[in-house]
Write a structure and sequence with these properties.
It is built from 12 helices and 16 strands. The protein has helices spanning 2-9, 45-53, 78-85, 104-111, 122-128, 130-138, 168-179, 188-194, 226-229, 250-254, 272-281, 293-301, and strands at residues 22-27, 30-36, 61-64, 89-92, 115-118, 142-149, 154-156, 183-187, 211-215, 236-241, 258-262, 286-291, 307-312, 322-323, 339-347, 350-357. It is globular. It starts with a helix and ends with a strand. The mean pLDDT is 94.
Length: 359
């Protein structure tokens, strides 16, 4: 199962709207097939493992990180494929809450005489597919807020200079986070200040750049900027308000940008909850939020941040620097969003502190 879980991680950021599933087939103590969900979600991990094993799958045990699907889509149900291949036993980490599956895959295996064991590696399997589970259960993707700041929580000087607060090792890991998420999201302020590319630029992983999402209430994103001008190469979505004139979309759509409309929040910005709901409806399961302080505050204030990846440099800017978040209405300590630290790692002179929402 540990091998299957490792295989499942390979698909993160590439398989939405599907879960990322790893499968290992073992016969007579020897691995005869390995598979994981491929880019765009097809083929599934079970199909890959069965194809590799061929006839050796008969009588084998299958170690699978998520319940095999029981519904027909672009490919036949994986539960039926496993049964047809003649596997003897299925060790499954986690049930799939998708209403199209939700126990049906396990039932089909049992009814066919396959021995089923459930729960091995469940905690890690749930973490790998936390985004998929969030989209199914909460109709929104998992949200990771990524911050890069000084020790005093400043993300830029008062003039807006921010490149580079953290060092090379931290920046490389930040690019890996992009590769492991379906989308990277920023606010219009960050887009106008930085004209970013928001791509993954690690050697060998350039093709794993996520969907780029910009919250832009009034469609101010420059049509000649990096994001819009490369929209046909890397998917780019703009989230704007319902009441923006339709003709203002045309220059963006001509460049290949998808424009998504949502209601406004109390500040006149795209409503954070409605934005995430719209992204989930389009199949996104994991969103990395990279800036800026207004967007971070909106998500934190609405209790929509599930993870924080905080890169912290050993430096101090002072009170006139730009804070990691603007005010979002905390008047009492009991109003604060609370997180628990999951890990801490040194990246050269910097630290990466990882947090999870404290439920």
């Amino acid at each position: 199962m540990a091998t299957a879980l490792g295989l499942a991680r390979r698909g993160l950021g590439r398989v939405w709207p599907n879960p990322s599933v790893g499968c290992v087939l073992v016969r007579e103590g020897r691995i005869v097939g390995r598979g994981w969900t491929q880019a765009s979600g097809r083929p599934h991990g079970e199909a890959g493992a069965l194809a590799q094993a061929g006839a050796a799958a008969r009588g084998a045990s299958a170690y699978i990180t998520l319940e095999p699907c029981a519904h027909s889509g672009e490919t036949p149900p994986c539960a039926d494929a496993l049964i047809g291949a003649g596997i003897r036993r299925a060790v499954v980490a986690l049930e799939d809450p998708d209403p199209r599956v939700d126990g049906k895959g396990l039932k089909r295996l049992r009814e066919a005489g396959v021995e089923v064991a459930l729960g091995c590696g469940a905690e890690e399997a749930a973490e790998i597919n936390a985004g998929f589970l969030s989209r199914i259960r909460r109709a929104r993707p998992l949200v990771t807020l990524k911050l890069a700041s000084t020790l005093d929580g400043r993300i830029a000087t008062h003039r807006g200079e921010s490149q580079w607060i953290t060092g090379e090792a931290a920046r490389a890991l930040a690019h890996r986070l992009r590769a492991e998420n379906d989308a990277v999201m920023i606010g219009i302020g960050t887009a106008l200040a930085d004209d970013p590319r928001l791509t993954c630029r690690l050697p060998g992983l350039e093709a794993r750049s996520p969907v780029r999402v910009v919250l832009d209430a009034r469609l101010r994103l420059p049509v000649m900027g990096r994001l819009v001008s490369t929209a046909r190469e890397v998917a780019t979505w703009i989230v704007t308000l319902d009441d923006v004139a339709r003709e203002r979309e045309r220059p963006y759509r001509r460049k290949g940008v998808e424009v998504i409309r949502v209601p406004a929040d109390a500040m006149g910005d795209p409503d954070a909850a409605e934005t995430l709901k719209a992204l989930g409806a389009r199949g996104l399961t994991r969103v990395l939020v990279e800036g800026g302080s207004v967007l971070a505050a909106a998500l934190l204030g609405a209790r929509l941040v599930d993870r924080i990846a905080w890169f912290r440099a050993p430096s101090i800017i002072g009170g006139d620097g730009i804070p990691a978040t603007v005010a979002f209405g905390v008047e009492k300590l009991s109003d604060m969003p609370r997180f628990r630290r999951a890990s801490i790692a040194a990246l050269g002179p910097d630290l990466l502190e990882s947090y999870r929402e404290q439920s």
